[in-house]
Specification:
Radius of gyration: 33 Å
Number of strands: 24
Strand order of the largest sheet: 3-4-2-5-6-1-8-7
CATH class of the domain at 340-552: Alpha Beta
Strand content: 5-15%
Number of helices: 27
Structural class: alpha/beta
Length: about 850
Amino acid sequence: MASSSTTYTNGSTSYGQRSNLKSRLTSLDSEIASVERDIAKLQTLRHSLLEEKTGVQRELEASMGRTLSARPPAGPGPSNASARGKGKGKGIDYMDEFEWGQELLHRARKVFGIKDFRFCQKGVCNANMDGRDIVCVMPTGGGKSLTYQLPALLTPGTTVVISPLVSLIADQIMHLREAGVEAVMLTGATSKEESRDIFTRLGQKKQTKGRGAVRAVDDGNSEQEEIKLCYVTPERIAKSKTFMSLMEKMALDGRLARIVIDEAHCVSSLGHDFRPDYKKLSILRQLFPTVPILALSATCPPSVLKDLLKILKMRPVVDGNAATIDGTVYFSSPLYRANLHYSVLPKPSSQAAAIQAMADYILAHHARDSGIVYCLSKKDTQTVADGIREASGGKIKTGVYHADVEDEVKEGIHRKWRNGQVQVVCATIAFGLGIDKGDVRFVLHHSMSKSIDGFYQESGRAGRDGKDADCVLYYRGQDATRLSSLICGEIEGQEKLHEMLRFAQNLTDCRKLLFARYFSSSSDLSTAAWEDPSAGPGTSLAKCGHCDNCTRSPSTIERRDVSVQSWQLLRIVEAVCREGGRVTVGILSDLARGLAGGAFNVSSGGKKRKRTEKAELDLEDVAGGKVGLSKDDVETLTIQLILDHYLKEDFHQTAYAINVYLSPGSQAPRLTRLSKSAVASGSGPRLECTFMTAKRRGSTTKAATAKSKQLSIKDSEWIPKRKPKASQPSQIEGNEDYEAQLDDEMDDIEAADDFGQQRQLSPAIFDIPDSDETDVQEGDDWQLDFRGSKRRPSADKPASKRMKTERESGRHNVDTDADGITAVWEDGQEVYVISP
């Protein structure tokens, strides 16, 4: 019986569970039926709303057409605005007059001191006021900031501006506050107390009517003012959930006026300055589907534009001069700026001489003007700043700016530079994006940029006020080696660097046309982007008439047939590589000219410490004798052979750096399969190269202890000729020579007679950090590869009797024995020896 009772109880429990499940099922069926009835109602409502939306869109389009056709023409002659504004698909011309036009211009004059709009500023402001999504491509210095700052004053709510660099944000905030505009920034440098205050103010609802926010700018009561512009970095958007939550609240309350993405090309990995955090901005359209987005850039080729629209989830672009009601309104301005005068000047071989040349140039041409000197590394900025100040006898006041400088110090340097207390800022690329100082009269590049895109943007910081400004690049062939090691891992990095090298090596073609060709081929941009707005259409392929190549005297350059010299260089590289040696640009230049006794190092192996042995190069047997070119000309030709694929660069990773060596390229057999006499008689391809005819006379004085002299030809032969200003002499007085110094760059060897002068180890290894301010970092000292000394330590001097004083310079060990013989060891190899 007990067993039967237990079975009944279990059966009773199972029955209760089934009953409950049936009841829940009935309840769910009822709820689903209710939801389906609601869905039917909502679908009916949706259909009704869609019909209403269509009607409103048609009415708005028709209203735009009537408004435009009713307005008087903006300028002389009949306006075509009415034709574009009427009818389906005709579109809106945002360069026309709108009801807010007078207020825009009034505010531009009163708040920003701007008398009239430039380029497409007017159209972008109008489209902004109309609540459109916009992409605006305008050259550096074209006035992109005004296109969102001005509309922000005339619309209720806050405009959030996403900007890549803290320095750029600080500069914008400084200018806006000086103009009386309530602007704030939220960056890593913002204190917690200030951040809390900003969050509180942004989270509060403002009781404004119509254009009340505009009047708030002039009230002078900060407690009542609405924050008009809030600047943040892309990292803040990508990583701060608190700020994104605040933005959502602002959007729901109708207080998020628009979102601006500055330097928008950083969104695309196809652009020249891609930043991963920018790509995360794709979330903006999902979270804020009704908030208009403005994307700004100085260079945005079609491929980048397509990628940008996809990532930001923006609609296809429509022309800002004939914009339909849907789509992203697109504006662009000519990239050519006629007030910028471009020059490429020969860079002296030693660092001290190069710095002296820049100081002389500034004193001669811009003694009282503000300028920027761009350097490759943080370490270079300090060296160049100190050097220019000393070389000028204290006449040029310099400041240093890079990512590792404390924010307070950066702001101080920036402020002093703007008010004239600092004349020249020596900086990495961390300084410049959006820096709004109109009277920058010169931008010098101590080292070459990694791409023409970067060079165009960096040099474009000059002459923003529309007045004449100089953009000068100091270039020598070995700069290519240093840069190659930095960008070998970048997508298209090598191709972009080679285009920059072609630009620098070109001594004949107009710089404007070189820019136009590059952007037309690499970015699919129309050459019309390089038209001179003041000269009218059809001028895109006309020479500028004021760059160094346009104004250069024919007597200062010479184009030569270098087929035989090229054959010689290629045979030397082949011979070194065949013997297991490695050759750099500097070593090749020395070997080709018969220096260092024709000796080069080859590895001899070894278990514990790799050793090197000397190999002798018989120039007569290998290359038919010495190459009859100067050091600089050999370097120029070597770079040309790299660009034409007769030579190629090989990259070798060490524990500390990437070394760059040369080897025969794919085109080399076209020459090397022939004899020297065959090449000389015209067989094989004919190679030509343009060289400067001015020569530098050498001096054995150390660069560290003597000032360099000036160029051996008058400065006016190098600098573009234009009407000189009162404060700018047309040329440097005197006709002196630059001294040739021992190279302090990577693996550059001078004559054997100069080996007794110990050289200072140069800076060399650079990495690009993942930070808000992308600088090149030096890390350890610059990779050195001195090979081929003429003298070796005395064979009768045992190594055990050497007095070793190991000094670390990067990863180099420097040993000095009792006789004063110094050996530099690199990765276990003795690569350079200095005899007393």
